[in-house]
Write a structure and sequence with these properties.
Arc Repressor Mutant, subunit A, alpha+beta, Jelly Rolls, 26% strand, disordered N terminus, 290 residues
């Protein structure tokens, strides 16, 4: 592990940040200020930077890194909740509410990070209101993604769920490529399955069908979205069959021990063939902020 001065930290960062990341949402002056706070660290190999259950309040700014957010179920099984890349921030929920970490965050390889004390981060947000607004947008998008994921699990096929995840990754973290949009996050099919809530064999079949349809191209440590418009049609982001939230009050049930609520979703008239579906809402469904 090595540390550096603020000027050295700024010099080694990528000037182009993914549009969906915190750094990508900030104006240049605010971005420079954020890159200049905290302690700069570098890891040459994978490292756990936040551990589920620990009592800590620092945030971590990913200057150059890919990190996985991992949750543990009650039976001890671990599952991939989200991917974070350069420009993202992790640990913001612990800094805000001072509660034990809700997930583990681990880098996937060499990483350059800023470890920022919660007091310093709060001071930065007070000095730069545009950063506070950008952080709110990041958190809001993560909550929206978690909500969509919950709906997907109850209502959509694996093919649709895979398309949703690939669209999110391409939009937030993809980079232009001569063949389309490349996602080079080195995700295994098992990890993609964990993101969509399906077995890796089922994900393999969905990807194969997408390859045959010319939607995606898979290769070593990367995936290329060949046709983002058609992918969104598959994911029902363009021309989705909408659902009305009907009979909500009488359809709610609650399990206090699990902190879960069950909501019946009824299809819009005209799409009765889809049938009703159910959505489980959990306190742990939005843990990706750690």
């Amino acid at each position: 592990m090595t540390t550096g001065t603020p000027s050295a930290r700024a010099a080694c960062t990528n000037p182009e940040w993914p549009a969906g990341s915190l750094l990508g949402l900030l104006p240049a002056s605010t971005r420079t200020a954020l890159l200049g706070i905290g302690t700069a660290v570098e890891y040459a190999s994978p490292r756990v930077i936040i551990r589920e259950g620990e009592q800590s309040t620092h945030v971590v700014l990913l200057r150059s890194a890919v990190a996985k957010v991992i949750g543990r179920a009650g039976n001890g099984r671990e599952s991939l909740l989200a991917i974070r890349v350069s420009g993202d921030i992790v640990g913001e929920l612990g800094a805000i509410d001072s509660k034990p970490r809700s997930a583990t965050v681990a880098t996937c390889g060499p990483a350059q990070l800023n470890i920022i004390r919660s007091a310093d981060f709060e001071g930065f947000l007070r000095r730069y209101p545009d950063a506070a607004l950008a952080l709110s947008r990041v958190i809001g998008e993560r909550l929206r993604t978690a909500s969509q994921h919950s709906v997907d699990l109850g209502c959509n096929s694996v093919r649709v769920r895979v398309a949703h995840v690939l669209d999110d990754l391409a939009t937030g973290y993809g980079r232009p490529h001569e063949k389309g949009i490349v996602i080079d996050l080195d995700l295994t099919q098992k990890e993609l399955g964990e993101l969509v809530g399906a077995a890796d064999t089922t994900v393999h079949k969905a990807l194969r069908a997408m390859r045959e349809d010319g939607l995606v191209e898979t290769g070593y440590q990367q995936l290329i979205v060949r046709d983002i418009a058609r992918l969104r049609e598959v994911s029902e982001l363009a021309g989705a069959k909408p659902y009305f939230y009907q009979n909500i009050s009488p359809a709610w049930t609650h399990d206090g021990s699990q902190g879960r609520a069950r909501l019946r979703l009824a299809p819009q008239p005209g799409y009765a063939e889809a049938g009703p579906c159910f959505l489980l809402l959990s306190r742990r469904s939005c843990r990706a902020g750690a």
